[in-house]
């Protein structure tokens, strides 16, 4: 596996196409990376069924959650690099997405002021009440 093939960028559709052109192969996706685990099926300590369940065939599947639920070791994470054939397009766009998220931030400011305004009003009423009590 060459370094450049590890960084090949796939859209989800492209992974599905790759899978349909190579029906004998087992492609899975974890952490937005694409792996060809065909040669690893027999060796996987978690059994081949665990990997087969996430085979990308007729529809796109994401094995990240299950992979993390198992709590794979650093050895396992190192090992998987060997089977990586590319990254998902979306991964490259993450920077863009987070920029987009940042532009959404003012919304948080609005919800924050929803808390501050009633708190200030409550404080003002309290002070007015104290003044009223002091006068009488
Ligand atoms: C390329 C991807 C993967 C690699 C290289 C890999 C590698 C490994 C390795 C080395 C172990 C032994 C324990 C450890 O060192 O953490 C393991 C265990 C396990 N794996 Fe994976 N794994 C991969 C994907 C998955 C996926 C997608 C699942 C889906 C559920 C899975 C399920 C399991 C389970 C259930 C065990 C536990 C076996 C046990 O403790 O009896 N693995 N895997």
TrEMBL record:
The keyword Iron applies. One of its GO terms (molecular function) is metal ion binding. InterPro entries: Cyt_B5-like_heme/steroid-bd (IPR001199), Cyt_B5-like_heme/steroid_sf (IPR036400), Cyt_B5_heme-BS (IPR018506), Cytochrome_b5 (IPR050668). It holds the Pfam family Cyt-b5. Coiled coil: none annotated. The chain crosses the membrane at residues 112-132. GO terms for cellular component: membrane. It comes from the Eukaryota. Keywords: Heme, Iron, Membrane, Metal-binding, Transmembrane, Transmembrane helix. PROSITE patterns: CYTOCHROME_B5_1, CYTOCHROME_B5_2. Belongs to the cytochrome b5 family. PANTHER family: CYTOCHROME B5, CYTOCHROME B5 A. This is Cytochrome b5 heme-binding domain-containing protein.
């Amino acid at each position: 596996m060459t370094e450049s093939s590890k960084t090949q960028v796939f859209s989800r559709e492209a992974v599905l196409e790759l899978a349909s052109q190579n029906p004998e192969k087992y492609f899975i996706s974890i952490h937005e990376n694409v792996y060809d685990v065909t040669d690893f099926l027999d060796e996987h300590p978690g059994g081949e069924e665990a990997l087969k369940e996430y085979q990308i065939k007729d529809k796109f599947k994401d094995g990240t959650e299950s992979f993390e639920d198992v709590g794979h070791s650093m050895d396992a994470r190192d090992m998987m690099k060997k089977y990586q054939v590319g990254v998902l397009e979306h991964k490259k766009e993450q920077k863009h997405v987070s920029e987009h998220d940042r532009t959404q931030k003012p919304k948080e400011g609005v919800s924050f002021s929803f808390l501050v305004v009633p708190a200030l009003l409550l404080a003002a009423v309290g002070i007015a009440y104290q003044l009223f009590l002091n006068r009488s």
